[in-house]
Amino acid sequence: MAESRKNEIAAAAFRAEVDETLLHSVAAEPSTANTKEIYKALAYVARKQLAIRWVNTQIEDRKKRARRIYYMSMEFLIGRTLDNALSALGLRDDAAAAFDGAGGPSLTEIIECEPDAGLGNGGLGRLAACFLDSMATLELPSWGYGMRYEYGMFAQSIINGGQVEHPDSWLIDGTAWEFPRPGTAFPVRFGGTAEHHGEWAEWSATEAVEARAFDYVIPGHGTDRVSTLRLWRAGAPAQIDLNAFNSGDYARAAEFKNRFENISWVLYPNDSTPAGRELRLRQEYFFVSASMQDIILHHLEEHKHINNLADQIAIHLNDTHPAIAVAELMRLFCDEYGMLWTTAWSQCQRIFSYTNHTLMPEALETWPVSLIQYLLPRHMLIIYRINQEFLAEVDRLFPGDFDLMRSVSLIDEGDGSEGSKRVRMAHLCIVGSHRINGVSQLHSDLMVRTIFAGFARLYPERFHNKTNGVTQRRWLAQANPSLSALLDRSIGKDWRLNLNRLRELRPLASDARFRVDFAAAKRKNKIRLADYVRRETGVALNPDSLFDVQVKRIHEYKRQLLNVLHVITRYDAILHGQADDAAPRCVIFAGKAASSYHMAKQIIRLINDIASVINNDPRVQDRLKVVFVPNYNVSIAELIMPAADLSEQISTAGTEASGTGNMKFALNGALTIGTEDGANIEIRDNVGTDNIFIFGNNAQQVEILRRSGYDPRSIYQNNPQLNEALNKIDGGFFSPQERRRYHDLFNSLVNYGDHYLLLADYGDYVETQNRVDALYRTPVEWQRKTILNVAEMGPFSSDRTIREYAIDTWHLGASLKKV
Ligand code: 26Q
Fold it and tell me: What pLDDT does residue 66 have?
């Protein structure tokens, strides 16, 4: 039978199954069902297959008594699920054939009905989601453990140029993707007192919250195996509110219910700077305790005792947010299973590993001893004992080195007063783990030279690098169908499972025909984005201009303001008639500011103020456009990344641990303009210096500048272009209704030290942007370089990262899928 006939039959069968599901599970008549109902039916069709795969994976792993990896993270930024599920299940072509051109909504329109699961802030949460995809695809027996937030990352709208936050009620219509596990629930206790009885202690807590499990099935690609993402929801133990209900006091009963449920209510929308609130600590312990209980129960279903736990499991700590797991496992070992402290401790260290995601001292998580004492008295005793034995070991290794002791202690003594003592969560992770890693080579190097230098002297063998990666299934195959189709035609489809196959593009960079096709795919993506931007903001972007994109959380260290200074300089050049040969540009921004981060919100406001001046200045025409795309999230990233020509990765050298957006852009054929920071360095090393725009002070130069009395004011005074740009901001040129709006922002750069050294890098940045311009005006050269960038992105697949973790960190090399 002809291939096309077979496809027709498959599509018809698929459509029939969707119609049947519409009728029986959605209660909608197929001929009149709306797009949301069709979405639901499609999701149910996929869900059925996922359920089977989940059950089979568990049977297989149980039979093998497989060693498992548990990835603990407060955040999993998974975004939408339908498209990915259809691809992994091999149903995507049938779905497209069944819906596209059939009169009703297209598959794309159906897919776009789904709200994002925005259960994360940014890079760290999205990394966890890419890792789950790779763990499933590489067939690792793997589980993610996290929180089922009722409200994820807030939705952002822009009103009068400023950010306004709205609750993200992603569960309002329910979700087809979760499997509630009513049989899997654990009590999580808080408060009370703890008392030692020799090796163990008795903890009489004052309250207990119930943790209830909800599973999300993460399908692998090219395999029937899946991973499980198990998220915990907090609830009142069933018996507890009965009394209030019985006495008719419904208000009190409701209040009671809220007191318990609020633990999993909302994600803390804080990127980088921790919020030291009690509820956040409750959240951390809540999901950790439930997960640890679940892991042990699992183990005991397959093994008679717990003494071999370290042989059977690995637990990975995604930053310090789950750090209390170290103390919790010690508590379970000693108090619940009667294990000796030393036996328990050596198992603990074999089980845990920890990834650090930031070097910025203000971003390192610490908790007041008094708060831990109050919420988790037993854990405080455990932390003290861990610290005591650890410091004794330090004294054995480096006798009398009190500076070292002070610097590595789990307790920051503060000013010596009881109330100022804090627990350093990163230190708890390090002493409780056998492996600690950073997320790019530079970050890992700096980690052992700066914040963890003391630990690197004590335990050099524990520190490693694991450079981040991204999943090409979402960030190329799903996000960029036009480029994917071209790749499939040119080098085959295998890059989905082996990204190194992209190397076969190298010779095609000098193939004129391929370059034309490559540019056409990019242009299609730019039109797709321009349509969206016009609908959302009213701004018209010309797809033939250079799309210059910076999308990420708004933060001073990421230096969106440096980008803004360049935009103003370009605007001035246009006004002064000095930019007549410049390539037309659209500068695109998107990103959320933490709700309490005033300066970040000012940056958003400034971008929008500048956009409205420039976009409405008739002298500028198409030569410069500025747009801020509201509500940046995973789905919007999937739209923006494939449309970019230029990727802005311009953090102060030494501050961005890795970056992962940098990888997504390059994979989609954008050139990078960036500093020598994070994974930019490894991207440069792979694509070659000629194919990337690196500028500015490197980490070492930044260190020297800061030490030798950096003087931003003199740079401001001596660089006329910069002077002009800053004066426009300060003088109210972009905020005529409120001329002093940006005075503090101006001061932070010119008069208060410019902590992130924007002015130091400004000159080189502008000059480099001019080189970008010149290259863009030579399309053949531009395209050649973009193709070479894509060709060298193989190492930046999260499959590579996960393979390294599996082999070096988790001792799971034997479980990896053979390629
Ligand atoms: C901590 C305590 C209380 C409240 C919030 C937080 C909190 C939440 C999120 C602290 C930090 C984060 C997120 C950090 C993050 O996303 N870091 C990024 O991680 C990426 C993956 O490794 C890196 O690529 C980025 O460089 C890094 O900034």
Answer: 98
From the alpha carbon of 657, which atom of ligand 1 is closest?
A: 26
Q: Residues with Cβ within 6 A of ligand 1?
A: 121-124, 127, 268, 270-272, 274-275, 280, 321, 357-358, 365, 439, 468, 656-660, 678
For residues 534-562, b (16+ Cβ closer than 10 Å) or e, as one string?
eeebebebbbebbbbbbbbbbbbbbbbbb
> Which one, of 590, 525, 604, lies nearest residue 551 by Cα?
590
Whether the CB-CB separation of 499 and 800 falls below 8 Å is answered with: yes
Residue 566 makes CB contacts below 8 A (sequence gap 6+) with 762, 765, 766, 769
Which two three-digit tokens encode residue 395?
A: 């004294």
Q: DSSP assignment, residue 274? A: P
Q: Is the pTM of this model over 0.90?
A: yes
- Which residue's CA is the closest to the ligand 1 atom numbered 2? 274
Distance of CA 38 to the CA centre of its chain: 30
Could you identify the residue written with the tokens 């783990």?
433
The pLDDT tens digits of the residues spanning 665-685 come to 999 999 999 999 999 999 999
- Tell how far the Cα of 267 is from the centroid of ligand 1, in angstroms: 13
Percentage of residues in the chain having pLDDT higher than 90: 93
- Name residue 580's amino acid: D
- Tokens 């190298």 belong to which residue? 506
Ligand 1: residue whose CA is nearest its atom 25: 659
Among 134, 169, 137, 174, smallest CA distance to 43 is for: 174
Helices 35-64/3-21 angle, 10° precision: 100
CA of 491 to the centre of ligand 1 (A): 36
Contact predicate 419/363, CB 8 Å = no
Cα gap 473→797, rounded to integer Å: 10
> Whole-angstrom Cα distance, residue 640 to residue 536?
13
Q: Cite the DSSP H helix spans in 29-159.
A: 35-64, 82-88, 92-99, 107-111, 123-137
3-class secondary structure per residue, 574-609: HHCCCCCCCCCEEEEEECCCCCCCHHHHHHHHHHHH
Strand partners, 72: 145, 317
- Nearest-angstrom CA–CA distance, 711 and 727: 18
- The closest-lying atom of ligand 1 relative to the alpha carbon of residue 659 is 24
If one residue of 77, 130, 266, 272 were mutated to test the ligand 1 pocket, choosing by the most ligand atoms within 8 A of its CB, it would be 272
* Whether the Cβ atoms of residue 679 and residue 127 lie closer than 8 Å to each other: no
The SS3 call for residue 200 is strand
Residue 122 Cα to ligand 1 midpoint, Å, equals: 7
Sequence-distant (≥ 6) Cβ neighbours of residue 584 within 8 angstroms: 542, 544, 545, 546, 622, 623, 624
Note whether 407 and 454 are within 8 A (CB): yes
pLDDT tens for residues 10-59? 889 999 999 999 999 999 999 999 999 999 999 999 999 999 999 999 99
Q: Which residues are catalytic?
A: 357, 552-553, 558, 660, 664
